[in-house]
Amino acid sequence: MPHPTHTIARLRRLACALGLSTPLLAAGAVPPVGTAELRIRAEGAAVQVELSAAAETLVGFTGTPGTAAQQQDLKVAEENLKHGEALVRFNPQASCLLEEAKVDADPRERDGEAGMGANYRFNCVFPKMLNSAALGLFIGFPALQRVHVHYTTAKGQGAAVLTLGNPVVTFVPLQ
To answer: Helices in 88-159 by DSSP H: which ranges?
Structure first.
């Protein structure tokens, strides 16, 4: 019987070969507390966004909520994560609309890590105009200090580290 880590690695390779998106949480890649990972992939009019963060970053605790305050924090975090259009705002000229949001708001440990996140699918009316994204994540999640953004667009790939004081990424491919 194959080891679970090998099975996950094979599934990721297969998904990549098929051009499918693999959620960051399934890969076990939970960023350190205070940090989030955001992957943006634009293909034509479709834009996929994957968000991953430590549960402590998004709700302030890990595990099953033990108090009424923790239950409320989890409920608020889950509601915030559902609103991808407020958390990731693409430049208005591209006219991108959120079509689907899948939220993982379970702060319990899985495979030794407690991560939460979301996957979003946007559709852009004018995809050639897509050139930036502003993050509202810092407003909804005050423990969040920085977001590592990795993006792929028709113009190329790039990366940026965003903060509350610098919440906008411009899609300028790395040379």
So the answer is: 137-140
Residues 6+ apart with CB under 8 A from 88: 38, 40, 49, 120, 122, 133, 134, 135, 136, 137
In this predicted structure, the answer to whether residue 1 has a pLDDT above a threshold of 80 is: no
Give every strand in the sheet of 168-170, ordered side by side: 88-90, 132-135, 168-170
Q: Say what the pTM is.
A: 0.81
Contact 46, 24 (CB under 8 A): no
Q: What b/e sequence results for 40-66 when a residue is b if at least 16 CB atoms lie within 10 Å of its CB, and e otherwise?
A: bbbeebebbbbbbbbbbbbbbbbeebe
Picking from 45, 41, 49, 42, the residue whose alpha carbon sits closest to that of residue 127 is: 45
CA distance 171 to 162: 13
CA distance 168 to 48: 17
Q: What is the pLDDT of residue 72?
A: 95
